[in-house]
Amino acid sequence: MAAADWGGKADHLAGERATAQFDVDGMKVAWAGSRHAVEVADRMACLVASDPVFRKDTRTMLSRKELFKDTLKKAAHAWKRTVELHLTEEEANLLRLYIDQPGYVDLHWVMFVPAIKGQGTEEQQKKWLTMAYKFQIIGTYAQTELGHGSNVQGLETTATFDPSTDEFIMHSPTLTSSKWWPGGLGKTSTHAVVYARLITEGKDYGIHGFIMQLRSLDDHSPLPGITIGDIGGKFGSGAYNSMDNGVMRLDHVRIPRDQMLMRLAQVTREGKYVHSDVPKQLLYGTMVYVRQTIVADASRALSRAVCIAVRYGAIRKQFGSKAGGPETQVLNYKTQQSRLFPFLASAYAFRFVGQWLKWLYTDVTQKLESKDFSTLPEAHACTAGLKSVTTSATADAIEECQKLCGGHGYLNSSGLPELFAVNLPACTYEGDNVVLLLQVARFLMKTVSQVASGKQPVGTTAYMGNIQHLMQCKSVVNTVEDWLNPAAIKEVFEARALRMAVNCAQNISKAPSQEEGFSELSPDLVEAAVAHVQLIIVTKFIEKLQEDILGHGVKEQLQKLCGIYALHLIHKHLGDFLSTGCVTARQGSLANERLGKLYAQVRPNAVALVDAFDYTDHYLGSALGRYDGDVYSALYKEAWKDPLNETVVPDGYQEHLRPLLKQQLKLSRL
Ligand SMILES: CCCCCCCCCCCCCCCCC/C=C/C(=O)SCCNC(=O)CCNC(=O)[C@H](O)C(C)(C)COP(=O)(O)OP(=O)(O)OC[C@H]1O[C@@H](n2cnc3c(N)ncnc32)[C@H](O)[C@@H]1OP(=O)(O)O
Ligand SMILES: Cc1cc2nc3c(=O)[nH]c(=O)nc-3n(C[C@H](O)[C@H](O)[C@H](O)COP(=O)(O)OP(=O)(O)OC[C@H]3O[C@@H](n4cnc5c(N)ncnc54)[C@H](O)[C@@H]3O)c2cc1C
Predict the structure, then answer these.
(1) ipTM of the complex
(2) Which domain holds residue 181?
(3) Contact, 366 vs 358, CB < 8 A?
(4) Would you call 378 a catalytic residue per the annotation?
(5) Residues 533 and 604 in one domain
């Protein structure tokens, strides 16, 4: 029976949509950031969905080679459409986003170009970016090595200046110095920003960036002295395997001196090392930029998973009343709501904090241009911390959404396995999440010590200035309704974050040295960092609610989601809140009671709240998450696309199955 015979064009979720108590269009604007953003995103999403080259429904069934070739085809076609349609930068970025297939272009635009912009001189930018913008060259970001990723100062590749020829000699002295992981390096990139130890006049000046040509622009073969290849298959089918993460070894490869990125430091014709009057941390600027974009990616990935699980939960029915009444939608089970609605709230929370982080990054960049470096440490702490907390929560949530969809969630056609596999490495790339949280903790310890010496903290640590009150305050919450008060919520998050940080600082001060104390206390420091970052997310959500938000009922729904986000964290981390004395056990159970009421209020709006993400069926890529809810027809149809179903009798039957069956039959007759 054809799948179409089982379902029509009906909207199986129409009943769910009819119960919404808010204006979905208004919520789309709140989610996207502006009416303009909704309009451009819609246009680009439809452009991708309607173009057969961008089909992705059989992607998980392709071999690695086929998948890679398909990625090359899509990237070339996307560029062709960008040029033909004169797309703006915003439109072209969205086009790439909706194609939804990791590939070398991501590294080119998200890391290679920003690295040259941030670390190149004006002259270098003019030369290299002109070519990069026209795709005359394809670039990647080659920092990580086989032996070192997190410890950037431990990288081993060398760039030794040779004054006799005015060149750097780029070399991989050991196996562990092989560049390992850079996306697009394996098979595609013609160029890279390579990070290496700068050695001149016999002295090692540490890590610096260099632009290197890797492959011939005529026939794409690696240049002399360069050994290069792909590092091999990665987790999951489809997923990140579309990316050619690469390995590269350099054997005394010479590049002209002017290919060292010289905005932060220079080597003169004579070989003198000169450092500009800017902080050396600006070398890490590309990572700050990318971490900020990863927060936005996390909210998108999480919202996709939630959209799939909510829509499917409204369609899927299990068990009826004892009297033989209709079966229950699984979304109506309280356990399903308490597992799923915190993710729905987190998707909105991460979206809004991502919008704020983008603002913060722009603000810091403008300040850096006028040589004001004062906000750089905070920008580093915020991007590192938010990248870490949002990507870890997202990976966990996608995995849980798979379970929330039961067995069907485990099928590739649910879209969830691929979504998980593509987003899981975000916990590692651009800085391992624990390593990054330790950076946040370091920043917090410094801030605590500055507060102790009377300095008033600013920005996201301003709350620490209220130390007298926050170290001894008791929560004012006395009833379930009191947990609706944003000021009461904010106060307990501030008190928890500050008390955890101060506890760590006090315990470190008892250690023989600061370094030993930091190391010994590192598990607690990571928890203190998480508490601080969660406070930022809660605060930014509360601040969002103070803005003008248009549309009937939109603000009210967001208030409920903000409540769910904050209260589910209190429930989850009750140990922290209790042990620091920020809430009592009774207040903790009142928070949980309030949470249950909020879930019930969100339930009739759940499908509309995920509709507001405004995702096309193409982008969602899920039989379970379809807009029309026609889940079973879609699952049935998708199954037949599997290569195993190309023949009725499987390959291998004659060689392996038939002889086995025959032999067993013969034996049974003996
Ligand atoms: C709307 C449309 C959107 C666009 C759509 C596009 C669609 C496509 C989507 C695709 C997007 C996703 C692309 C993502 C691709 C990812 C590919 C992955 C790439 C990589 O992984 S690149 C490699 C990244 N590597 C790392 O992150 C390494 C991590 N390690 C470090 O960062 C550092 O080494 C360290 C921070 C852990 C430690 O460094 P170090 O030992 O040097 O430092 P100290 O701890 O001693 O600190 C020294 C001081 O410097 C400060 N610091 C450290 N880092 C920074 C920084 N980044 N900025 C500013 N300051 C920094 C420390 O705080 C110390 O300061 P102090 O004052 O001395 O305490
Ligand atoms: C899919 C993917 C794409 C990537 N793309 C690129 C790219 O384009 N370019 C590029 O240069 N790199 C890239 N990378 C590399 C990436 O940046 C590194 O993997 C990352 O920075 C983590 O470093 P590592 O692998 O050395 O982990 P390690 O540092 O070896 O981490 C291993 C474990 O040790 C722990 N650990 C490490 N240091 C500490 C510490 N000080 N204290 C406590 N615990 C610690 C970590 O928490 C982790 O649990 C990519 C990686 C992946 C997975």
Answers:
(1) 0.98
(2) 137-276
(3) no
(4) no
(5) yes
